[in-house]
Design brief:
Largest sheet: none
Transmembrane segments: 33-53, 90-108, 114-136
Structural class: mainly alpha
Keywords: Membrane, Transmembrane, Transmembrane helix
Organism: Bdellovibrio reynosensis
Mean pLDDT: 90
Number of domains: 1
Low-confidence stretches: none
Radius of gyration: 21 Å
Protein name: DUF3021 domain-containing protein
Number of helices: 6
Length: 166
């Protein structure tokens, strides 16, 4: 089996756990709502480059620059995360920061052999990108607002009940 596929599967599982356990638990501030899709797009760009560009010395340099840029991009917020994240989430981020360049490097190593795989993985990541954009920019804030309104109504109802019971 391809090492790129193994690394991508590990990275994907870790990202999904981060998203559906930690992010949903704590919510995301606006800077993460904006930044996470940018991170995702850098990965997609790298994989699409591997899928469509021929492996030449010039393209190898371009891919290397893209991979380094993507690896730096995904770490851009980590000093801010320490204010918002638990130790467990920070550990998971450390795992992701190790897997990210490893997966891109393994993709580079298997460039000529896995073009359809790069497209498939990029397609899966694109679906995750759409989820990030829709959930965090539309759905999350509607659910959060409804929960806040429900809590306010309950508080008002409780206050009214206490007032009337006196």
């Amino acid at each position: 089996m391809s090492l790129f596929i193994v690394a991508s599967a590990i990275q994907g599982a870790a990202i999904l756990f981060d998203e559906f356990f930690f992010h949903r638990k704590r919510g995301l501030p606006k800077w993460e709502v904006i930044g996470h899709p940018i991170d995702t797009m850098t990965v997609i760009a790298c994989l699409l480059f591997l899928a469509f560009a021929d492996k030449t010395p010039t393209n190898e340099k371009i891919f290397f620059a893209m991979a380094v840029g993507s690896s730096i991009c995904v770490t851009k917020d980590e000093w801010i995360h320490r204010k918002y994240c638990s130790a467990e989430e920070m550990w998971l981020h450390a795992v992701l920061f190790m897997m990210h360049p490893l997966a891109l490097y393994l993709g580079y190593r298997e460039w000529e052999d896995l073009r359809p795989t790069f497209l498939a993985v990029a397609g899966g990541i694109f679906c995750f990108l759409i989820y990030q954009l829709v959930y965090w920019n539309f759905r999350y804030y509607r659910v959060k607002k409804a929960a806040e309104e429900a809590a306010l109504m309950k508080r008002q109802s409780d206050e009214m009940y206490e007032y009337l019971s006196e």
